[in-house]
Amino acid sequence: MSGLTFRLTSAPKERLDLSQLTPRKLSSTPLAQVLKLNVGSTKSGLSLGDVFAVSGKPGDTVRIESGSARLDFVGAELDHGTLIVEGDVGVSAGRNMRGGRLEIKGDAGNLLGSGISGGEIFVKGSAASQVGGLSAGDKFGMTGGLIVIDGHAGDRTGDRMRRGTIYIRGKCGSFAGSRMVGGTIWTELGFGADPGLLLRRGTLIGPSVEQMLPTFADAGRHDLVILRILSRYMSATLGSQAPKPLPTAVRKYAGDLATVGKGEILLTA
Length: 269
Hints:
Elements lengths: L2 E6 L7 E2 L5 H5 L3 H4 L13 H4 E5 L4 E5 L5 E2 L9 E4 L15 E4 L15 E4 L19 E7 L13 E6 L15 E4 L3 E3 L9 E4 L2 E3 L5 E7 L1 H14 L10 E7 L7 E5 L2
Parallel strand pairs: 1-4, 2-5, 4-6, 6-7, 7-8, 8-9, 9-10, 10-11, 11-13, 12-14, 13-17
Antiparallel strand pairs: 1-3, 15-16, 16-17
């Protein structure tokens, strides 16, 4: 596995924009120029060589050692290859990803996978608010791809999401799937308050909801083929790390009836 490795030489004193550290961008940039890339967020003009030691040769893999919550836009615009972070990352990791694989061994800040249309993001820890959501100026949030979070996810996960799948082994915060128009959010430990606010289409799956919006209607128990398809997809994609297959029968709540109401919350317990 060839590629460049970046190691922080000291804790960053300002937020760093690491959107340029992708396999494709680095493969076409001489190492001397890589070290001069401006990664700072202030007028001081902080260069990459000021905060990182670099080793290895350009390849399909980029590894960032010594993570920090001040490392922003990690994996932004990633379209092929693998980017691994051995620790925490800041805001907007995986922003506008189109392909490839982003692995985060720690926690992720707000807006993880904002605008992602393809590829896979794996987070070993937890993620803050607006996973797969949209940033200022975006029409939609996540429009494709897969996000897997081993810990918990914050509020407004999947805000205005259109396609793709978010799987959370822990709990999902409040207002999950707000303004969602498609796609799937699946949590193993349940949703916080008011999931599906202004949900137009799409599916939220979990064992429980802290507080159900009054604009969702109990549609009874159903045996849905789509759940078996989703379980097979996760098994094929995640292998031994895949979740247990979903039950064949679930209770369905249809909504949000305050809007077109073609979405659904499926309770598995």
